[in-house]
Specification:
Blueprint (H helix, E strand, L loop, with lengths): L9 H19 L6 H8 L1 E5 L8 E6 L2 E7 L4 H17 L1 H7 L9 H15 L2 H11 L9 H11 L3 H10 L5 H7 L8 H10 L17 H12 L5 H9 L14
Parallel strand pairs: 1-3
Antiparallel strand pairs: 2-3
């Protein structure tokens, strides 16, 4: 049953936990803890609604810079998890990214994809802190949890309901037998129930709905323009790079070629 819900082997999890703690500490020393801010430190972070439903995010590498695209058509909780997943790739798959330019072939790099997922869970939901918050907010036997308890936890850690539930099972704070009862409420058909329960618990529903936010850092625009002006990319490359984020070269005074 553990395989059915992708719970990793403990030794493997502990290795990813160590990596996540190292990375978290590195950025904590800079006073940065939010995953979007961290990702913005190591890459150009672009958030926008993408029409490709199955694609929650991807990375490109161009002219010595990483560019991370997050699909804000997914829920904010899911988007934050994807951000942590991509952070792993940037830090630990740098050579692959520089060689392939776009990290999209999930099958070819299946092992790294699994590592990135486990890293994301360890990074966003640190084991000791999850346990501390659990005993403060819930403090129940692992067989007695209700959906509202998962709601309290996932809002605290700013992840999706399902990611939090899996983490509770992984850390033996929720029983495997409870999983299929507790997971039902986060299905697409039950989204209204989850939203209603979230409001009843006193939380906003931001984490469980798509933000559909568009965020393009000014540095990215300067970066694209500078590369064109210095002859590193063609007009067509510049146009595509700007149009992907909803901008037109003409807005910046560049004539059509």
């Amino acid at each position: 049953m553990r395989d059915d819900i992708n719970i990793p082997e403990e030794l493997f999890r502990l290795k990813m936990k160590e990596l996540a703690e190292e990375v978290r500490m590195k950025f904590a020393k800079k006073g940065i803890s939010d995953i979007f801010e961290i990702l913005s430190e190591v890459a150009f972070l672009i958030r926008k609604p993408l029409d490709i439903e199955e694609l929650s995010g991807f990375i490109t590498y161009f002219d010595n810079s990483f560019i991370v695209y997050l699909n804000s058509n997914f829920t904010l909780g899911h988007e934050r998890y994807t951000a942590a997943h991509e952070l792993y790739h940037i830090i630990y798959n740098e050579d692959i990214l520089k060689k392939e330019k776009v990290f999209l072939d999930k099958e070819m790099h299946k092992e790294e994809e699994v590592k990135a997922d486990v890293f994301a869970a360890e990074f966003l939901m640190p084991e000791d802190y999850v346990k501390e918050v659990f005993y403060k907010l819930v403090n129940l036997d692992k067989n007695k949890l209700l959906p509202k308890h998962v709601v309290r936890m996932h809002n605290y850690f700013k992840v999706s309901y399902k990611a939090m539930l899996k983490r509770l099972i992984q850390l033996n704070l929720c029983s495997l037998d409870k999983y299929f009862q507790l997971v039902e409420i986060c299905s697409l058909e039950n989204k209204d129930k989850l939203q209603s329960l979230t409001k009843q618990e006193g939380y906003p529903i931001d984490l469980i709905i798509p933000s559909r936010k568009t965020y393009i850092p000014k540095e990215y625009i300067i970066y694209v323009k500078s590369n064109y002006e210095n002859g590193k990319i063609s007009y067509e490359n510049m146009r595509e790079s700007l149009e992907f984020v909803g901008l037109d070269p003409i807005e910046f005074g560049y004539e059509k070629i």
